[in-house]
Amino acid sequence: MRRAQVYRWQIPMDAGVVLRERRLKTRDGLFIHLRSATREGWGEIAPLPGFSSESLTEATAAVCAWARAWQAGRQEALPGLPSADFGISCALAELDGTLPLAADYRAAPLCTGDPDALFATLSAMPGEKIAKMKVGLYEAVRDGMMVNLLLEALPDLRLRLDANRAWTPLKAQQFARYVNPDYRSRINFLEEPCQSRDDSRAFARETGIAIAWDESLRDADFVFEKELGVRAVVIKPGLTGSLQTVQMQIAQATALGMTAVISSSIESSLGLTQLARVAAWLTPQTLPGLDTLQLMQAQLVRRWPGSSLPCLSVDALEPLL
After folding, report:
1. Where does Mg(2+) bind (predicted)?
2. Which residues of the chain are in CATH 3.30.390.10 domains?
C-alpha cells in the first residue's frame, strides 16, 4: 500500500543573506515523503527566489497533484518543474534504493575575507584546501584585492569564485587587474563572471583565469562543448531538474574533461544531506559546494554531521497532504 505526504516548512535565515539584491529573511520549501510497504523516501522541493523558474506556489500545486496520483497507484510523469522534479526523483530513489547512503559531507567553506578565520577552518580540512568566495556583490576592485590578499596569506589555498553574472567586461577586467598573475592559477574557476557567455569566454582568454558555467546550464540554447578556458560546470540540482537530468549533465561534462561540481541552492539540512549523497555517488573525486547551512537558524528532520544548530522534527512541519 502506498502513502504520500507533503509538508511545508519555513526556516529563519541569518540576517544579511542577500540574493540578487533581494534580502532572504526565510527559506521556504516542501518535503515529500513516500512510503510503500516497509520502504520510505524523502525529497525536498525548495525553489530559490530570483533563481528558480517556478514559484513555491506553483511547485506546491504540482507536487500535491503528483503525490495524490502516486498514492492512488498511477505512474505519473514528473511535473516538469525543476525543484519538484528533483525532490520527487530523490524520494523515489530513496524508496527503491537507487540513491546510495554513502555521503560526502566535506564542503568548500564559504569565505568572508578573514584570512585568520579561514586558515583555522582550512587547517582542519583533510586533503586539498579549497574555499569558495562570492564576488560581484561589491566593487570589482575590492573583490580583486580580497582574493589577492587571501591567496597571498594562504599559499596552499585554492579558490572557487562565483560572480553570478554580475560584471560588465570592464568590471571583470578591473577585478583581474588586482589579482597577481602568479596567483591566478590557484583560482580553480570563476563562475559566470559576465552577463553574457561570450564576454565570460573573452575574460578567460585575456586573463588566464579559468571559468565555470552555472546559470548557463539552464539557458535554453546551452550545449556542452569543450572550450578553451572553461574548466568546470557547477550543477545545482534543485535548479536543474530530476536526478536523471543531473546524472546526464555530469556525464556530458565528464566526457569533455570538465569538472562537475554539485552545489547547494540553499537547501535545508535534509536537502543538503541528500546532495552530499549525490556528490559521493556521482562526483566522488570532487569536493562539493554545500557550505550553506550556516546561513540558517535551524535544521530539519535530518542532521548535517557536526552542526550545532537545533534540528526540528517532522512534528514542526505543516502537513498539506
Report:
1. 162, 191, 214
2. 2-97+307-319
Q: How far apart are CA 293 and CA 309, in angstroms?
A: 9
Please state which of the ranges 14-23, 47-56, 141-150, 183-192 shows the lowest mean pLDDT.
Answer: 14-23
Say if residue 162 carries a ligand binding annotation.
yes
CATH class name, domain 115-294:
alpha beta
| For range 92-115, the mean pLDDT | 86
E strand segments, the chain: 2-12, 18-19, 22-23, 26-36, 39-45, 129-134, 157-162, 187-191, 211-213, 230-235, 259-262, 299-300, 311-312, 318-319
Q: For 235-292, what is each residue's pLDDT tens digit?
A: 999 999 999 999 999 999 999 999 999 999 999 999 999 999 999 999 999 999 998 9
Q: Is 191 labelled a binding residue?
A: yes
Distance CA 112, CA 268 (A): 21
Q: Which residues of 282-320 are buried (b: 16+ CB within 10 A; e: fewer)?
A: bbeebbbbbbbbebbebbbbeebeeeebeebeeeebeee
CATH architecture of 2-97+307-319: 2-Layer Sandwich (3.30)
